[in-house]
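WP5 quarterly update. Target: MFS transporter. Source organism: Neptuniibacter pectenicola. Length: 414 aa.
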Amino acid sequence: MLHKKLHYAWIIVLSGAITLFSCLGLGRFALGMLLPSMGNSLQLSYTQMGIISTGNFMGYLFAVLLCHHLIRKLGARYAIFLGLLLVGATMFFISLSSHFVLIAILYCITGIGSGAANITVMSLVAHWFTVQHRGRAAGFMIMGNGLGIVASGALIPWLNSTWLDDGWKIGWGTFGLVVIIAACITVLLFRNTPAKLNLEPYGHNDSTSKNTTTTESSTSRPHEAPNSLRQLIVHIGSIYFLFGFTYVVYATFIVTTLVEQYQFSEADAGSLWMTMGVLSIFSGAVFGSLSDHLGRKFGLTLVFILHTLAYALAASELGTLALFISMALFGISAFSIPAIIAATISDVLPIEEAGKAFGYVTFFFAIGQITGPTLAGYVAEQTGSFTSSYLLCACATVLAIVLTTLFRPLTHRP
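C-alpha cells (predicted):
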C-alpha cells in the first residue's frame, strides 16, 4: 500500500504546496507582477495600488478571526477547499472589472479565502509530523509561494505583450481558474489527521531515538519559560507583525520599482521577478530544516539578517547591481519565516492548541500586512520613490532581530 512506501504525511505536504501556490503564490504574490500594467490601464496612483493590496490583507485579517470557528465546524479539509474556491472565484471576477473600488472589494474577499486556506493548511503540520520534522515539512509546503511567483513572472509579461491593455485581465482570469482547479484536486487529497488513515504522525517511530540535541536546540529549559501563554503569543506575534509589515512592501512594489524607478522593461522586470521566485522555492525548506537542527531562534535571526540586507540595498540607490543582490537575498530567504513560526508554535504547544495559537499569532501578521502597503504607497507618492519605504523596512527587520534574540520559548512538548 502507498503509506508503507511513502508516508501519507508527504501527500499532505504536496497538497499544502498546491494550496499555498494557489492562495498565496497566485492569490497574493502575483499582484506584484500585475500591478504595473493594471495601474497604467486604470490610471491608479501609488496610494490606490497600496489600498488594493491593503484590502487583501484586511480580508486576510477577517479570516484570522474566523478561521478557528471554520475549522471546528467544517474540518481542515473543507475549510481549505472553501478558502480556495473563494480565492479562485474572486480573482476571476476581478478580470471582468475595470473599476478601482470593485477591484479593491473583490481583492479583499480574495484575502479572506487566502487566509482561510493558508492558516488552516499550516496548522496541519502539527498533526502530521513530529517535532523533529515540522520545520522541513512546513518549508516544503511553502515552496508553493515561490512557484506562484515564477508562474506570474513567466506569464504576465507574455500576456501583456500579446493582449496589451487586456493582458492583466486575462492574467487574473487565468489564475482564478487555476485556483479553482487546485481546490478540486486538494480536497481529494487532504485528510485532517493521520488517525483518519490509521497512521501515526511522520517521525513517530524515530522520535524517541532522536538525539536530544535537536530538542534542546529548538527550545529552552523549563526555567526559561515565560510567565504565560499570552506572553508567548504577543512575543511571537510581534516578530510575525514585523515580517508581515516588511516582506509585503517588497513583494508588492519591487516590480513597480524596477519599471518606474529604474526604467526596466516589463519583460526584464518579469524575468527578475521570476528569478527571485526560483530562488525562493526552496527557501522555506532550507531554513525550516536549519531551524530543526540548529534551533528556531537561530533560523529566524539568520533570515531577518538577510532581509535587512535586502531592504537596505533596495533603499541604497547604488544602482542595478545592488538591486539584483537585494532581490537574490530576499529570494533565498523569502518565505522561511512562516515555516519557522508555524514549527515554533507546534513545538511548544499541544496539537489541539497549536492551530488556535497560530491563528492568534497570524492576527499580528495580518495587521502588519495591512499597514505595510498603504504606508509604503503613501510615502512613495510623497517622496517620488520607494527608497524611504525600503529603508523603513530595514529598520523594522533590525527590530525583529532584537525581539528574536530576546525570545524565550516554553518548555518543549512533543
